[in-house]
């Protein structure tokens, strides 16, 4: 009617089948160009082989038989996503499980995402050498992308604090009694058929230690001439309690279970690992508190769970002492971190020489400029760097300066190099923030994870190419 032709619609039963993940690469370019760029650069056999070699050592027959694991490529990409977004392992599992783009990037598609505890176990199989090799490979990718040529090198050190409570002698003694009491309680069922006095042998002295420590803390707030003598008596009681627990544990491990040999061996290994630390805690308490002697900082035990923790003096504002480890970072132009290293001792001397040697292995030539703060300066270091081919060493000297040295440090080239060195403070601050409020775990099979370094480098590569 009225000259309008009515058009009909054809009824269809269902929408045509479509591969959802086929359109994800187009979405990735708009949603997250960093992931898109990384996806094109990550199919790297050398990276995968480094990771696969360590993953294959998780169990005795991991490479031969067993249930199929998440592919190596997927596990590697899951770790990259974790470090890129600064997520915990649990957050990584949840975000990847719910996000189609992340499932595509990690090559999981509709497969189940590994549990966070499973991902932690896979990550713990990576050895420190593998993590360093991964970072070296990423630096090579940055060179291929022409992001850096390694002409300038700068260094910086920071303290990565371990996640421990403030160490005190009484606190370490109570921790020692707690750990050993837990051990004898677990061993009670294994030795009850082999000893007659199992109740006394596996007695927990934790309550005694806690009450003594509480009395000691109240004594610290008191005033009076007899205060110091009473405190020493309480410390003697704590030390005696810890020594009794050590004797109990040594007696327990002398009676291995015949029926549960594997479990007994596991507990024995745990005890043998922690007993030397606890004996050192007892010895240092006797020396410092009861005898008034000094203990070298390198010989102190500051935590039973993080035994490699060191006391580091701060030369800046804030806390006067930090408890953790000193980590040094090397960075070249383009913002690429070429090396990270946990220092065995809290000083930086000699690190500039090691940084240049590592730089030579990566770039096959020395940097033109090496810049660092006065903490690494020494006349010997400067001479060695010049002998290795470095043209300009921008490291301020400490102490009284000669007129010649003053003129050199006031020159335009020196000041320009030292201003460039200040740019590494940003990545250093980022490192402390990423590690959870400057707190991290240093122990474990891999120690402090360097995933931050190569994830940061990959992000830098992706952002530079995308720009």
The number of strands is 7
Overall mean pLDDT stands at 83
Shape designation: flat
Rg for CA atoms: 29 Å
Which topology of the largest domain does CATH recognise? Nucleotidyltransferase, domain 5
Strand-residue proportion: 5-15%
In this structure, how is the largest beta sheet organized? 7 strands, mixed
Count of discrete structural domains: 3
Structure description:
53% of the residues lie in helices and 9% in strands. The N and C termini lie far apart (60 Å). The chain has helices at 24-31, 33-41, 45-55, 72-85, 89-98, 100-105, 116-124, 128-144, 169-191, 198-201, 206-220, 227-252, 261-290, 351-363, 379-387, 403-409, 412-421, 425-434, 451-466, and strands at residues 152-162, 310-313, 321-332, 336-342, 369-371, 392-394, 439-440. Strands 1, 2, 3, 4, 5, 6 and 7 form a 7-stranded mixed β-sheet that branches. The chain has 467 residues and is of the alpha/beta class. Residues 443-447 have low confidence and may be disordered. α12 (227-252) runs antiparallel to α13 (261-290). The chain folds into 3 domains: 20-126, no CATH class; 148-164 and 308-445, Nucleotidyltransferase, domain 5, CATH 3.30.420; 169-299.
């Amino acid at each position: 009617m009225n000259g309008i032709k009515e058009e009909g619609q054809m009824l269809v039963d269902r929408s045509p089948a479509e591969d959802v993940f086929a359109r994800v690469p187009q979405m990735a370019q708009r949603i997250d160009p960093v992931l898109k760029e990384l996806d094109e650069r990550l199919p790297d056999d050398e990276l995968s082989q480094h990771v696969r070699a360590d993953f294959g050592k998780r169990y005795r027959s991991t490479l031969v038989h067993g249930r199929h694991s998440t592919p190596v490529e997927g596990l590697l990409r899951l770790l990259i996503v974790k470090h890129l977004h600064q997520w915990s392992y649990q957050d990584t599992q949840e975000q990847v499980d719910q996000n189609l783009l992340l499932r595509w990037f990690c090559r999981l598609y509709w497969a189940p995402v590994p549990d966070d505890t499973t991902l932690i176990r896979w990550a713990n199989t990576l050895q420190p050498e593998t993590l360093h090799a991964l970072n070296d490979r990423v630096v090579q990718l940055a060179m291929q992308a022409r992001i850096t040529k390694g002409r300038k090198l700068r260094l910086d050190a920071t303290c990565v604090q371990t996640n421990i409570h403030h160490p005190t002698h009484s606190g370490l003694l109570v921790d020692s009694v707690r750990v050993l009491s837990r051990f004898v309680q677990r061993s009670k069922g294994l030795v009850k058929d082999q000893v007659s006095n199992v109740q006394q042998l596996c007695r927990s002295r934790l309550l005694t230690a806690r009450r003594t420590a509480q009395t000691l803390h109240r004594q610290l707030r008191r005033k009076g001439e007899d205060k110091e003598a009473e405190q020493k008596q309480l410390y003697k009681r704590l030390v005696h309690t810890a020594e009794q627990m050590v004797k109990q544990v040594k007696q327990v491990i002398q009676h291995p279970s015949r029926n549960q040999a594997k479990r007994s061996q596991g507990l024995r290994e745990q005890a043998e690992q922690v007993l030397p630390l606890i004996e050192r805690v007892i010895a240092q308490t006797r020396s410092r508190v009861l005898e008034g002697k000094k203990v070298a900082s390198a010989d102190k035990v500051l935590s039973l769970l993080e035994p490699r923790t060191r006391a580091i003096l701060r030369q800046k504002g804030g806390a006067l002492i930090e408890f953790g480890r000193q980590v040094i970072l090397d960075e070249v132009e383009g913002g690429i971190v070429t090396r990270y290293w946990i220092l065995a001792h809290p000083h930086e001397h000699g690190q500039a020489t090691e940084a240049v040697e590592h730089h030579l292995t990566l770039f096959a030539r020395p940097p033109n400029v090496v810049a660092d703060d006065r903490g690494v300066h020494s006349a010997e270091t400067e001479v060695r760097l010049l002998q290795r081919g470095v043209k300009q060493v921008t490291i301020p000297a400490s102490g009284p300066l000669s007129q010649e040295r003053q003129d050199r440090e006031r020159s335009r080239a020196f000041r320009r190099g030292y201003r460039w060195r200040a740019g590494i403070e940003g990545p250093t601050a980022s490192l402390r923030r990423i590690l959870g409020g400057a707190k991290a775990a240093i122990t474990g099979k891999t120690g402090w994870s360097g995933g931050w370094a190569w994830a940061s480098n990959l992000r830098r590569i992706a952002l530079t190419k995308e720009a």
